[in-house]
Amino acid sequence: MPNGTVVSPWLRDSPGALLGLFRASTNGLTKSEAVRRSGLSRTAINQRLSLLLAARLLQPTDVGARTGGRPADRFHLNRDQGVILIADTGATGMRVALCDMVAAVLEEAYERIDITDGPAAVLSRVKRLFDEFLDRQGRTPSEVLGIGIDVPGPVDHDSGRVVSPPIMTGWHDFDISAYFRPHYECPVIVEKDVNAMAFGEHRLVHADTSDIVFVKLGTGVGTGLVIDGEIYRGADGAAGDVGHIPLEANATGTDAPVCRCGNLGCIEAYAGGWALVRDLKALGRPVDSIDDVIREALEGRQDATRLMRQAATIIGTAVSDLVNILNPRTIVIGGQLAAVQELLFAGVREVVYRRSLPLATRELRIVPSALDGRAGVHGLARLVTDEVYSVERINRLVGTLSQGVTPVA
Questions:
Q1: How far apart are CA 402 and CA 391, in angstroms?
Q2: Beta strand pairing status for 330-334 and 365-368?
Q3: Helix (H) / strand (E) containing 86
Q4: I want to staple 243 with a disulfide (CB 3.0 to 4.6 A). Which of 29, 84, 255, 268 is the partner?
């Protein structure tokens, strides 16, 4: 929010919205700056600031002010008020983190998993890492103010449950939030993995761009959409699932393969990491994982490079459809297969620019992910802090403190 902006009366009247001004400022705000940016009077700022200080949501920057001296001129978000816990899970691995209240990662770990082991097995490992992090950081479960979990499957955003996931055996309709509820009294955000990745890339790397598409090329093929700065999930949370769009009949000159979702000829059944492993194995190459496929491609093995170029063409076709429909400013490509940039990106760009409208590609950028596999963690951390610090939650929290709090001078 730029200096001098006068916001709506609804926002000006809200302590929770005032906190948002402090969250948006990396160096804190003085009361004069808060007056200017909010449009509130100094008296109103003093009243709301007192409530936010009493709730330990803000802290004075001046250390002397904490010892009973003159109130500080500058205040900032209390990043140590609590912690948040994050688990970014994929088909074959997960990254788990503990973050402070400005979404900075304090500790993290990566573990190999098999998502088909089911929710009990995977989430118990997540919980174990959560407990270890809290113990090492000297924190208790009562200090956990929010949890974020993402999964490699379609998520009903309202219920936080996975719905008919193609690869997540045993996860359908499992209540992930309820698994953690006996241990932590806090909100639990459940999100589709590629949505979290898109949000992380947007907030940390492309914040100056209102619309981006994140394309994840890993075991499967998925896309996350950020429109007007917010995740676009569609009516039921299924938006952007391009991996299961069927190609035109015989588009590759071969019989349509069976996809893991049960349909024939899906994009993922040709271009997903699991499909490339399948096809290279069928050609007699010694591959058992996506890492093996990447190694073969980087070594210039003919079969691997041919299949990778075919995958780039197929992915470019799907992305071009999104470009024509959504007209995003930036396409970000991440996931394990993005490591083979030289083979993938040229093919994707060529197809996108050939099949998309000139106006839609005039300023389009197609770039690799800048967050080195941590886009999901960063996205989840910001989704959780946005929920914890939502206007409604903060107003409810400070509402109980509105009596008997003396405004700061």
A1: 16
A2: parallel
A3: strand 83-89
A4: 268
Nearby residues of 398 by Cβ (< 8 Å), 6 or more positions away: 15, 16, 51, 52, 54, 55, 57
Query: Residue 363 pLDDT > 80, yes or no?
Result: yes
pLDDT higher than threshold 90 for residue 253 = no
Bridge partners of residue 365, in order along the sequence: 330
- Residue 119 CB: number of other CB atoms within 10 A? 20
Rounded CA-CA distance 116/98 in Å is: 25
Whether pLDDT at 87 is above 70: yes
CA-to-CA separations, 257 to 265, 306, 311, in angstroms, rounded = 5, 18, 14
Would you report the helix, strand and coil content of the chain in percent, each value rounded to 5?
A: 45, 20, 40
Q: How far apart (Å, rounded) are the C-alpha atoms in residues 288 and 281?
A: 8
Per-residue confidence (pLDDT) for residue 216, from 0 to 100: 96
The CATH number for 9-80, chosen from 1.10.1040.10, 1.10.10.10, 2.60.120.260, 2.40.110.10, is: 1.10.10.10
DSSP string, 238-284: -TT-GGGPBPPTTTTSSPPPBPTTS-BSBHHHHHSHHHHHHHHHHTT
Residues 6 or more apart whose Cβ sits within 8 Å of residue 204: 370, 371, 378
pLDDT in tens, 103-152: 999 999 999 999 999 999 999 999 999 999 999 999 999 999 999 999 99
**pLDDT above 90 for 211:** yes
DSSP H or E segment with residue 189:
strand 188-192
| Domain 83-197+374-388 shares a fold with domain 206-368 | yes
Distance of CA 271 to the CA centre of its chain: 23
